[in-house]
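Postdoc handover notes: sequence design on the structure in folder B. Input tokens:
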């Protein structure tokens, strides 16, 4: 089989490529990635050495480029990770989120139709459900929870999900969608909470916690997410949505304090900064459907996953120090300088 992975030079897509190469060495993997600020070929260094892996630089929203690649490779499965993924950036520039996340998805769907792919899988997010109140720990997102987005990022992801479902209904395209909670693990771009806090703590820099730090996220180790996507795209029912999450809820402050403790740093580094506009309070996934239908369960506890993640950042300083030395500096100054 040939599997087209879009956005594979990013965090989850990169981990997914390694998951595939390890667990399905009989398959060929083709990665299409535009290499935006978030894409990094250093992530794919080991994959590039393998004969059954091909990397193509290109934009999912560029119809000619997508059509040419589909004609050349005739993928059996398409897995779309490519996206603008950072909420703070969508506050600065929503347009690129609509272009990549919505238009890019539609272009991939059209190519998938024309080339009769056996499965188009969309990697989505729990953020399409909006947020839950902090004082109702009994509430969880199910696949039936109405879409109720808060940010241009989540709105663009919800728009893409609706397009995917419309192609199933209108054109009988065999699709599936996974909606996952917050991931963490190796190759995570250091603009996101966990890698940012690890990098800053290692540099004895302030740890910028938005608002009061009471917002809750449901953390999933990236390898567990990759296993879930692999199961759904191969064995999940067509036209279905599967929520993916691990009942690993933590407040942001708990996460930051865990990182500080594991690295032997002082909590005095924690600095409360102006909150994110429209900041979602709590995300929490009910993964009953994927567990009962496909037998998926997360294997990694938060305590184990965060230790593995911190160790990875200690062992792979070059990977993230290269990022910190580039465009990231102006981003950081813009985002946190006067906060
Ligand atoms: P990321 O920002 O680390 O990587 C995105 C990748 O997509 C980058 O390699 C980038 O170069 C590429 N890309 C961006 N625009 C492109 C375009 N127009 N054409 C081709 N490639 C393009 O993102 P991530 O955290 O790995 O997230 C991957 C997917 O998973 C996204 O769709 C995101 O919405 C979803 N998701 C992420 C999380 C999370 O916690 N990170 C949780 C749930 C769902
Ligand atoms: P993030 O990693 O950006 O993921 P998302 O917004 O998609 O959940 O942020 C996770 C949480 O951490 C979110 O509640 C915002 C918060 N946060 C901070 O408090 N400080 C930071 O510097 C960052 C990047 C995030």
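Designed sequence:
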């Amino acid at each position: 089989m040939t599997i087209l992975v879009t956005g594979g030079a990013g965090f989850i897509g990169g981990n997914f490529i390694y998951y595939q190469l390890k667990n399905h060495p009989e398959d060929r993997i083709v990665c299409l990635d535009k290499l935006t600020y978030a894409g990094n070929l250093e992530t794919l260094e080991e994959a590039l050495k393998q004969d059954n892996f091909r990397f193509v630089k290109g934009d999912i929203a560029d119809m000619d480029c997508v059509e040419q690649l589909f004609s050349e490779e005739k993928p059996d499965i398409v897995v779309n990770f490519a996206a603008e993924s950072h909420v703070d950036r969508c506050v600065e520039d929503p347009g690129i989120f609509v272009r990549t996340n919505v238009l890019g998805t539609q272009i991939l769907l059209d190519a998938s139709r024309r080339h009769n792919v056996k499965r188009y899988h969309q990697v989505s997010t729990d953020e399409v459900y909006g947020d839950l109140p902090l004082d109702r720990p009994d509430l969880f997102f199910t696949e039936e929870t109405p879409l109720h987005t808060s940010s241009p990022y989540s709105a663009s992801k919800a728009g893409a999900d609706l397009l995917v479902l419309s192609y199933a209904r209108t054109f009988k395209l065999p699709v599936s969608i996974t909606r996952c909670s917050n991931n963490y693990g190796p190759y995570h771009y250091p603009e996101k909470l966990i890698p940012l806090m690890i990098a800053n703590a290692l540099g004895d820099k302030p740890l910028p916690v938005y608002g009061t730090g009471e917002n809750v996220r449901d953390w999933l180790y990236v390898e567990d997410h990759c296993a879930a996507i692999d199961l759904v795209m191969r064995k999940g029912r067509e036209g279905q949505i599967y929520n993916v999450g691990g009942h690993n809820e933590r407040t942001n402050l708990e996460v930051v304090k865990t990182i500080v403790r594991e690295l032997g740093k002082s909590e005095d580094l924690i600095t409360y900064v102006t909150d994110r506009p429209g900041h979602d309070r709590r995300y929490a996934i009910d993964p009953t459907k994927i567990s009962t239908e496909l037998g998926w369960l997360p294997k990694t506890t938060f305590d184990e996953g965060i230790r593995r993640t911190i160790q990875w950042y200690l062992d792979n300083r070059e990977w993230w120090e290269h990022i910190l030395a580039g465009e990231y500096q102006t981003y950081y100054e813009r985002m946190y300088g006067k906060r």
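Context for whoever picks this up: The longest helix spans residues 94-114. Don't rerun without checking with the PI first.
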